[in-house]
């Protein structure tokens, strides 16, 4: 790699007032602005660092609050359960836990009449006022899905999709 070459003594750049490499800006003006800034070009790092420290402290606070919430939930659960009495004492529960009992399935009440008793039936009507004879329609009304299409000679199943 070559040595850094410096300009000869008394050299003046022809692009001093408008350098093509600086998008037409004056090199003198740009250098003057840099010296006047006093190192302010990197000041965006300071607020960024402060924000990162604040974010870290907020994350720690969130973790503390989450652990506190878990402790309060456990205490709330304990206080809630304290109001209920167990159906068996702790000693009795410990002895029944060691003895193996077959688990009985959950049984529901059977439907209908008890065994050996006649079922309840609706009483047949003694008197019928009117008899109406209604013929089946020839076609289904629009908008009503149907699996059966009626015809004069009988019903035929139609499976439509």
Roughly how much helix do the residues carry, as a percent range? 25-40%
Calculate Rg over CA atoms.
47 Å
Number of helical segments with 4 or more residues: 3
Biggest sheet descriptor: 2 strands, antiparallel
Care to count the β-strands? 2
How much strand content do the residues show?
Answer: under 5%
The H/E string reads HHHEE
Morphology call: elongated
Structural class: mainly alpha
How far apart, in Å, are the first and last alpha carbons?
A: 81 Å
Strand order of the largest sheet: 1-2
The overall average pLDDT, rounded, is: 78
Low-confidence stretches: none
Write a concise keyword list for the protein shown above.
single chain; 161 residues; mainly alpha; two-stranded antiparallel sheet; 3 helices; 36% helix; 5% strand
């Amino acid at each position: 790699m070559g040595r850094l070459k410096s300009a000869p003594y008394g050299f003046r750049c022809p692009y001093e007032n408008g350098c093509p490499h600086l998008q037409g800006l004056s090199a003198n003006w740009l250098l003057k602005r840099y010296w006047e800034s006093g190192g302010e070009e990197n000041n965006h790092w300071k607020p960024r660092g402060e924000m990162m420290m604040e974010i870290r402290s907020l994350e720690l606070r969130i973790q503390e609050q989450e652990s506190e919430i878990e402790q309060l939930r456990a205490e709330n659960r304990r206080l809630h359960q304290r109001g209920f009495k167990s159906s068996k004492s702790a000693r009795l529960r410990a002895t029944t836990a060691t003895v193996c009992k077959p688990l009985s399935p959950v049984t529901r009440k059977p439907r209908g009449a008890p065994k050996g008793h006649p079922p309840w039936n609706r009483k047949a009507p003694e008197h019928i006022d009117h008899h109406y004879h209604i013929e089946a329609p020839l076609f289904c009304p629009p908008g009503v899905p149907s699996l059966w299409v009626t015809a004069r000679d009988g019903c035929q199943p139609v499976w439509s999709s």
